TrEMBL record, chain A:
SUPFAM superfamilies: Thioesterase/thiol ester dehydrase-isomerase. It comes from the Bacteria. One of its GO terms (molecular function) is (3R)-hydroxyacyl-[acyl-carrier-protein] dehydratase activity. InterPro entries: HotDog_dom_sf, Mitochondrial_HTD2. This is MaoC-like domain-containing protein.
From TrEMBL, chain B:
Signal peptide: none annotated. It comes from the Bacteria. SUPFAM superfamilies: Thioesterase/thiol ester dehydrase-isomerase. This is FAS1-like dehydratase domain-containing protein. Residues 10-141 form the FAS1-like dehydratase domain. Gene3D superfamilies: Hotdog Thioesterase (3.10.129.10). It holds the Pfam family FAS1_DH_region.
Length: 145, 150
């Protein structure tokens, strides 16, 4: 760990800056692999007849924490080795399904020069623009793992 | 009249048995691939990405302990008078990096149960804090889950 070196990157960061957006198209294979990694046997993630007929969903449901991971990837990729994520606070607000194209992104909402820290509003949105998973992250520059 | 009986509220403070697990390069790689990571350090398993503690400490239960819909029952939780789960929230603090070979121990505590009036009736909220420490008892991750039942 390198601790709180003065970051040139931080000097260029402004409130209102947007992070690069990324589209995610999770298919059955990726969803199956993700739940296998978790050891999650919940049928709504792989049993399509059950999911539609018994639970009444329009399709296989994406696992909530996977969307949380995508929020992290959005900020982590943008940061590279220039900083690290200190904390996240997010919620899964509505379901998303296999076949949906989801988009991750973020906006800087606060910059704290004395700590070289920023707050980022992050989101996963669906094609209709609805917030599927909103959150906030606290990031510190000049420190990476 | 409150949905939360004194007996139910007495569960606040309940703790799970500590669970100790080893971090392997293979498990990190599988997680990175499954989440669609594009970063070499994660795909090669040199370092765990954020949220890797989620699969590391997911309950491994036997088949006969799963409900018919494939869900494992969380033994930390009491039986609530409302059962339909709504959206949940997660708050995670990252204190130390995680690398292959690390032994980590998690302990989960039911830290709160409370009730709120929603638009269509009562809602029950509960909070579980999971602390992940290394073998030197240093805090690596603290995660607070909030779940809503209706």
């Amino acid at each position: 760990m390198t601790v709180a070196e003065k970051s040139q990157r931080f000097a260029d960061v402004r409130v209102g800056d947007s992070l690069p957006e990324r589209d995610f198209d999770c298919d059955n294979v990726q969803l199956m692999l993700y739940n296998a990694v978790l050891w999650n046997g919940h049928r709504i993630h792989f049993d399509e007849p059950y999911t539609k007929e018994v639970e009444g969903y329009p399709g296989l449901v994406l696992a909530g924490p996977m969307l949380g991971d995508w929020l992290h990837q959005c900020v982590d990729e943008w940061l590279g080795d220039d900083g690290r994520i200190l904390s996240v606070d997010y919620s899964n607000r509505q379901a998303a399904y296999v076949g949906d194209t989801l988009t991750s992104g973020g906006t800087i909402t606060a910059v704290r020069p004395s700590e070289q820290e920023i707050d980022v509003d992050v989101f996963i949105k669906n094609k209709e623009g609805a917030l599927v998973a909103p959150g906030t992250m606290v990031v510190r520059f000049g420190e990476s793992w | 009249m409150s949905l939360l009986s004194p007996e139910l509220l007495a569960h606040i403070g309940s703790k799970s048995e500590p669970q100790r697990e080893i971090v392997t390069r293979r498990d990190i790689r599988k997680y990175a691939v499954a989440t669609g990571s594009r970063q070499r350090k994660y795909l090669d398993g040199d370092q765990a990405p954020p949220m890797f503690h989620v699969p590391l400490f997911w309950d491994v239960v036997e088949l006969n302990q799963l409900t018919p819909d494939g869900v494992s029952i969380d033994s930390l939780l009491p039986k609530f008078p409302l059962e339909k789960a709504m959206a949940g929230g997660l708050k995670i603090e990252y204190h130390k990096p995680i690398r292959p070979g690390d032994w980590l121990t998690s302990t989960r505590t039911l830290t709160d149960i409370y009730e709120k009036e929603g638009r269509s009736g009562s809602l029950i909220f509960y909070e579980v804090i999971m602390d992940v420490v290394n073998d030197d008892q240093e805090l690596v991750i603290r995660e607070k889950t909030t779940r809503i039942l209706r």
